[in-house]
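B., you asked whether I could sanity-check this one before it goes into the benchmark set. Here's the sequence:
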Amino acid sequence: MSKFNYENKQYLKKLNDLTLDYYLKYINHIRRNLKNKKSLFLDVGCGIGVVLKALKKEGFVNGYGVDISRLFIKQGKAKGLSNLFYYKGESLPFRNNFFDLVGSFNVLEHTDNPESFLKEQITKLKKGGIIIVASPNFLSVLFPSNHKRLKGINNKLRNLTLTLKKLLVRNNGFEKMKPLIRKNFEYDDDAIVVTNIIDVKRTLVINNCKITYESGFVNFDGLFARFINKLPLMKYLLPSCFLVAQKI
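And here's what the prediction gave me:
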């Protein structure tokens, strides 16, 4: 799995094909939550460093990135980013209470232990620091998707039932799922965690964070998206999870 996911040139090509617009909401929230351009921030699962490079061009010079792929890190450094580090997906190679902001974009769904993954990021945050978590919502009921978990009426009804159960029970935790491995893979074939707003929010709150923003869209932030997101229970049924929280 590690070689398939992270040292695969086909996967690297997919990253290179993504435009900056794909990350724009994430970039905007990082920018919005940094106190100044000298603030320290970390992009966990930074890939080839697209987000860090965009912010560096704007003068945010203290951005760091970590990734589980040596291939991605190598390409990021070739693009002029120096604060990129390889890590194994467990302990982050920084001291505690170091960063003003830590974020991850479409990474949580690929982790072996999502609760520990988020807790480790919070540990590296200063008090009052910001954590941003963006991922797919694999309990989504609305909008079409090619992922096996989200296709068909039976899966959508199951997801609706599980969402309601999570809202009522509150402590049933992240569910795991098997990855789909194929030669011509699609995005999220290799996801192994059923990420969703409810479990992400719960994990952040029990680790001393206060939610400041939550949305069911990871890419969209216009008036229509904001209107849909504010409808009762709607954010839990939308295709993505986007949460911002402050360490208290």
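One thing to flag: The mean pLDDT is 92. Otherwise nothing jumped out at me.
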